[in-house]
Design goal:
The protein has two domains: 109 residues, 2-Layer Sandwich (Alpha-Beta Plaits), CATH 3.30.70.940; 53 residues, SH3 type barrels, CATH 2.30.30.30. Helix content is 17%, strand content 41%. It has three helices and 14 strands. Strand 12 and strand 13 form a beta hairpin. It is elongated and about 75 Å long.
């Protein structure tokens, strides 16, 4: 039996300590998998791409060898406990792990335009600046700027705005 056939288990981490748990488990010889997704976050009036855990407060792990016990995981710094069903640790099936990996890869290859809901043709509202509260129709989208068609002074006008200044209108 090789290490590739060992079972993957699920551990619950303490809040916002996924990376801490990940590095501490690896230091103990466990193989870990912490799927992260690229997401668009609005930070200081700008849209930024960030990586965040796909499953906040959860990490997948498996023993580094057949002889390694999973018992030390419970007391690993950053880990709250092993996910169990009764007394039996939860095991992640290979096809589920493969589906998660595929989704992670697909999402992380996406551009900011693909990740944001602001796309050409969508109705948006300006949330910051002198045009705050006004609505318009998105014409084009790029990493930093969005071209929006707006009614200004009775005429349709193209206005270039920062992506972070817009939200999708409801």
């Amino acid at each position: 039996m090789n290490s590739d056939s060992l079972s993957w288990y699920v551990a619950r981490t303490k809040p916002l300590q996924e990376q801490t748990a990940n590095s501490n488990l690896q230091r103990q010889g466990f193989v870990t998998y912490l799927p992260n997704l690229k997401v668009v976050k609005r930070i200081r009036r700008r849209q930024e791409l960030r990586l965040e855990p796909m499953f906040p407060q959860y990490i997948f792990f498996r023993p580094g060898s057949e002889q390694q016990s999973i018992a030390p995981v419970r007391s690993t710094y950053g880990v709250a406990g092993i996910v169990r069903f009764g007394n039996t640790p939860a095991v992640l099936r290979a096809e589920v792990l493969e589906a998660i990996t595929t989704m992670e890869c697909r999402q992380n290859q996406s551009s900011i335009e693909e990740l944001t809901a602001i796309v050409p043709g969508s109705k948006v509202v300006v949330v910051e600046g002198p045009l705050a509260g006004m609505e318009g129709l998105v014409s084009t989208v790029s990493m930093k700027r969005v071209e929006v068609l707006m009614q200004l002074l009775g005429a349709e006008t193209k206005v270039r705005l920062a992506l972070g200044c817009l939200e999708v209108a409801e």
